[in-house]
Amino acid sequence: MTSAHASLDRFAAGKLAGLDRRNLRRNLQETRPLGGAIVERKGRRLVNACSNDYLGLTQHPAVIEAACAASHAYGAGSGASRLVTGGHPLLFELERRLAAFKGTEDCVIFGSGYLANLAITPALSGKGDLVLVDTLAHACLHAGARLSGARFETFAHNDMADLGGKLDALRQAHRRTLILTDGVFSMDGDLAPLPELLTLADRHDAWALVDDAHGVGVIGEGRGTAHAFSPPAHPPLQMGTLSKALGSYGGYLCASRSVCELMRTRARPLVFTTALPPASIAAALAALDLIETDAVLLERPMQLARRFCRSLNLADPKSPIVPILIGSETAAMEASAELEMAGFLVTAIRPPTVPRGTSRLRITFNAAQEEADIDRLAEALKTILQTAEAAE
Ligand SMILES: *Cc1c(COP(=O)(O)O)cnc(C)c1O
C-alpha cells in the first residue's frame, strides 16, 4: 500500500470514528422485500413502516408486469443520454401523461428526483440571482441552490412573514429570484402554505418551485400538493419523483413548454446522464394508470395514518408521514431498536437529515399495510414512549 492509500484510509476511518462517537454513523442493513409491506432483516419478518412506497406499487402485479414487458421488448438499459441517441417513445409518452395529470403544458423526465433538483435551479439561476429555500426543504433543493452559484438564503419553515421580509429586503438587488419548498415536507409530513407562498412570489416576480416528491399519488386526489388546496394552487415549477408513490425510479418537472424545453437543452444533469431504463418508464406509466383510476387505493395511506394518530391521540395527519419527535440521537435509535423487536421497521431519523435535537421516528403509512399491524404498531409505540417518559 502506498502512503497515499494509507492517508486516505486514515482519513475515512477517522471520519467514521467521529460519527460513531456522536451516534451519527449510518449502518446499512441487508433488508429483503417479501411482498406487500413485509421485509426480512436478520432472519426476522418486519412490517415496513418507513418506506415511501405509499401505494405499495413497487409490488403491484400490473406495475411489475409492465417493467418486465418493456425490458423484453426494448432491453435492460437505455444506452445513452436522450440528447445523444434520441428519446425512447415511452419516455415522451410518460412526459405527456404526467403533464396532463398535473395540468401543465409540458413535463420533462430526469434520472431521479435528486438529479432533477440539481438540474432545475442551476438552469434557471446563477450569479446575480437569489434563491430562497425553506430551511426544512429536502437536501437536494439546498444542493441545487448551492450548485447554481446564485445568492442562497434560507427562510424559516413555512414562515411566510419571514419569506416576505427576505423578499422585501433582497429581491430588488437581484436579477431573478427563485423560491424553493417541499409540497409535503419529507421528515415532518406537513404541507407548505402554497396559496400564500404563490401570492408572495407573484408580488415580487419570484418563481416558485414546489417539490412534490411526497405529494403525487398521495394527496389532492393523487395529483399532489397543489390540488390539496381549494381552489388548486398553480406553482409554475412542480417537480417530483417516480420513485415514491409511483413505485418506480426517476424524477420529473411539470412546467410550461418553454421551461421544459430549456431543461432538455441546458440542464446538465439531464444532458450528461443516461436516460432511464425502459423498465422504469413503463412501470411509472402503469402506476399512473392505477393512480388515475383506483380512488379506493389512493385513500388508503391517509386512512391508516388517521387510524394510527387517533389511537395515539395525535393531531389529525396532513399526509401519510407521521413524525414522532424523540430528541436525542441515542434515544431515537433505542426507540427504533425496540420497534424492531416488536416486528416493525421504523428507522431513526437523525442529523443532518433533521436539525440537531429533533431526532425522531418517521412513520409512514402505505396501502400494503394491514389495519391490525397498524394497531399493533400504535400499541408498541405507546409502551415505548411511556417507558422512556418513566425513565426520565
Ligand atoms: C426523496 C426526495 C427527493 C429525491 O427523489 P429521488 O427520486 O429519490 O432521488 C427529492 N425531494 C424530496 C422532498 C424527497 O423526499
Strand content: 15-25%
Q: Which series of helices and strands comes N to C?
A: HEEEHHHEHEHEHEHEEEHHHHEHEEEH
Ligands: pyridoxal-5'-phosphate
Mean residue pLDDT: 96
Q: What percentage of residues falls in helices of 4 or more residues?
A: 40-55%
Quick recap:
The protein is globular. A 7-stranded mixed β-sheet has the order 4-10-9-8-7-5-6, with helices on both faces. A 4-stranded mixed β-sheet has the order 1-2-3-12. A 3-stranded antiparallel β-sheet has the order 11-14-13.
Tell me what you see in this structure.
The protein is of the alpha/beta class. The chain folds into two domains: 29-58 and 295-391, Aspartate Aminotransferase, domain 1; 78-276, Aspartate Aminotransferase, domain 2 (3-Layer(aba) Sandwich), CATH 3.40.640. It is built from 14 helices and 14 strands. Strands 4-10-9-8-7-5-6 form a seven-stranded mixed sheet, with helices on both faces. The chain has a four-stranded mixed sheet with strand order 1-2-3-12. A three-stranded antiparallel sheet has the order 11-14-13. A hairpin with a 2-residue loop joins strand 2 (38-41) and strand 3. Helix 4 (89-102) packs parallel to helix 11 (278-293). The longest helix is centred in the last third of the chain and has 21 residues, at 371-391. It is globular, with a radius of gyration of 22 Å. The mean pLDDT is 96. The structure holds pyridoxal-5'-phosphate (PLP). Pyridoxal-5'-phosphate binds at residues 112-114, 138, 140, 182, 186, 211, 213-214, 241, 243, 251.
